[in-house]
Amino acid sequence: MSNDVKLNIEEMIKAGVNFGHTVSKLHPKMKPFVSGVKNNVHLIDLEKSIKEFESSLKFIASLVKENKTILFVGTKIQAKESVKKTAQDCNMPYVVERWLGGTLTNFETLTKRIDYFLDLEDKKARNALEKYTKKERLNFDKELETLKIKFEGIKRLRKLPDAIFILDLKKDLTAAKEAKKKGIKIIGVVDTNINPDIADYIIPANDDAISSIEYVLESVKETILNSRV
After folding, report:
1. Taking a C-beta distance cutoff of 8 angstroms, is the pair 30, 190 a contact?
2. Which CATH number does 107-154 carry?
3. If you write DSSP's letter for every residue of the chain in order, what string do you get?
4. pTM for this structure?
5. Which of 23, 63, 141, 158 is most open to solvent, judged by the fewest CB atoms within 10 Å of its CB?
6. How confident is the model over 6-49, as pLDDT tens digits?
7. Mean pLDDT by 10 residues, the chain (229 residues)
8. CA–CA separation, 144 vs 141, rounded Å?
9. CATH 3.40.50.10490 domain extents, the chain
10. What CATH code would you report for 2-103+160-228?
11. Where in the chain is the domain with CATH 1.10.287?
């Protein structure tokens, strides 16, 4: 593989990448990626996972070399901070709070809201809000806080992303559906309870354990940074 990101089965096992969901939650299309069962939990076949993972990383590398944008999405509680940090380290946009319906399908309207947020942020920084009453300034502060939660990660996104990386396709299915509608390629982490067909590029892996999430994100980050050299 180019860009020298070496996926290591022992490290993946150590990080718990191979633990899927309980047997009853299996999505039929994930059957080919299951190698066995342990304590009623499906085990992901890491040999097969690595093949898909490498192909996803190659795609990510090709995007980065062309200076393309990847939007990171991870709204599940245990993944938020890791997704945010990875995206920031890679200088990519991210969504780690609730996905706002229409983020991709109604991008023009979203951009207007972002412009308003940036304008308000700028006025605050320049002390241009000082002319207002204390109560009005307090209201602006509250509004800024709300807008920051919604838009901080995508405030530099001036056009639709070229691809979207989704950490949990079940939780952030709306994001995937919007990406599909707009013809945006989806790179998705797929656990054993998810339909892999949703994504264009898959990473079969445990999407619940922090250690597994971090292993996946670290590999993605390394690929992005190496591809810029």
Report:
1. yes
2. 1.10.287
3. -GGG----HHHHHHTTTTEEEEGGG--GGGGGGEEEEETTEEEE-HHHHHHHHHHHHHHHHHHHHTT--EEEE--STTTHHHHHHHHHHTT--EE-SPPPTTTTTTHHHHHHHHHHHHHHHHHHHTTTTTTS-HHHHHHHHHHHHHHHHHHGGGTT--S--SEEEES-TTTTHHHHHHHHHTT-EEEEEE-TTS-GGG-SEEEES-SSSHHHHHHHHHHHHHHHHHHH-
4. 0.93
5. 158
6. 898 999 999 999 999 889 999 999 999 999 999 999 999 999 99
7. 72 94 91 92 94 96 97 96 97 96 96 95 92 93 95 95 96 97 98 96 95 96 92
8. 5
9. 2-103+160-228
10. 3.40.50.10490
11. 107-154
Q: What is the pLDDT of residue 2?
A: 44
Residue found by looking up tokens 């950490």 in the block: 167
**Distance, CA of 10 to CA of 7 (rounded, Å):** 9
- The residue written with tokens 């290591």 in the block is 8
Pairing of strands 34-38, 41-44: antiparallel
Q: Could you tell me which residues are beta bridge partners of residue 22? A: 41
- Whole-angstrom distance, CA of residue 118 vs CA of residue 130: 17
Dist CA 139 CA 143 (whole Å): 6
